[in-house]
Design a protein that fits this description.
6 helices; Rossmann fold; alpha/beta; 5 strands; 174 residues; single chain
């Protein structure tokens, strides 16, 4: 990784943004687990929720992110080319939007995490507009797809239309 850090063209910085409880921190945890192997003979305990980016006592007690937390991982693309990926887990509460704006300013793009049931919220709309204002590329990550089946018990056609509605709302803002 140290060698790759000497080559700026192989470094990508991404702000992971979204509304409160849409799954940003869990996504960052999964990125970390996918790129880091546990010590030999041990395995990730999938029953335990790891919080690699929520490491402050007040964040643990409140179970929300209050400050941006960086995470640097080594990622490989489909052609086996390695990149250094700087991921910035951002708070989802609108009161901490200054943290999100600051992380967008140092990022190459935005990974917008949206709960597929809650869909477009006013805060998500604000995040999209801020990313567009800063001319950042946006990658949409529809999260919590399982809720469509497990909680709402939607048939496939209705689940499709719910997802399409969410995408249409986001595209309308863009």
């Amino acid at each position: 990784m140290a060698g790759l850090c000497q080559r700026p063209e192989l470094i990508r910085s991404v702000a992971v943004c979204g509304h409160l409880h849409h799954g940003k921190t869990l996504l960052c945890d999964l990125i970390f687990q996918a790129t880091h192997k546990p010590p030999k003979g041990q395995y990730w305990d999938l029953t335990k929720e790891f919080k690699w980016t929520d490491n402050r006592r007040d964040e643990i007690d409140r179970e929300i992110s209050l400050k941006c937390s960086p995470l640097t991982v080594l990622m490989t693309d489909s052609r086996d080319k390695s990149y250094v990926l700087n991921v910035m887990d951002t708070p989802g509460h609108p009161c901490f939007s200054d943290e999100v704006t600051a992380s967008m300013r140092i990022s190459d793009g935005v990974l917008l995490v949206v709960d597929c049931i809650e869909g477009m919220t006013t805060y998500v709309e604000r995040l999209v507009k801020e990313a567009l204002r800063q001319q950042l590329k946006i990658v949409l990550f529809l999260n919590k797809l399982d809720r469509l089946v497990l909680e709402l018990k939607l048939p496939p056609a209705d689940a499709y239309f719910k997802l399409k509605h969410t995408l249409d709302d986001i595209n309308a803002v863009i």
